[in-house]
Amino acid sequence: MNTDTDRTSPAQSTSGLDIKDIMTAAAMLVLSMGCNSIIAMIALPLPIVYLYLAAPIEMFVGATFYLVAANRINKHGLLFVWVAVPTASAGGFSEQLLDMFRDISTNPWLLILACGLSMIGGFLGVLFGQKLLRRHFRKAGVVG
């Protein structure tokens, strides 16, 4: 019988976020946003590449950082923070890029292509992130 009720494993903990959890989420989010910014800077000179390839690559890279944070913190609400912070900090776009966004949203085939590529990038990123977690982060003791 386990009488140690003060200590719970991270998998059992469902209470609010503590400072360590917030710092872990913030660090992984900053790393993810930094990588996304670099990818966007490389892809932005070619708007068609930016629209169709930047999001799948960002999904691929971001999935790894999200999986590390999710496995380390293991509490509800992380996905909301992961989506809300970058959305709130998004900047303005050029007129040409907004026109291309409008073209994508009005042409169903281009919208399906963009969503499909993003889903494939995210799926491959999750697979890569899971392998990376098993191979490196769990062995190092970073995540449980």
How would you explain this protein's 3D organization?
This protein is mainly alpha-helical and 144 residues long. It is built from 5 helices and no strands. The protein has one domain (19-85, 95-140). It has helices spanning 19-43, 47-73, 78-88, 95-106, 108-140. The relative contact order is 0.15.
Number of helices: 5
The count of β-strands is 0
The main sheet comes to: none
Radius of gyration from the alpha-carbon trace, in angstroms: 18 Å
Which blocks of ≥5 consecutive residues have pLDDT under 50?
1-12
Report the β-strand fraction as a percent range.
under 5%
Shape: elongated
Number of domain modules: 1
Would you tell me the overall average pLDDT? 77
Q: Helix proportion of residues, in percent?
A: over 70%
Briefly note the structural class of the backbone.
mainly alpha
Termini separation: 23 Å
Order of helices and strands: HHHHH
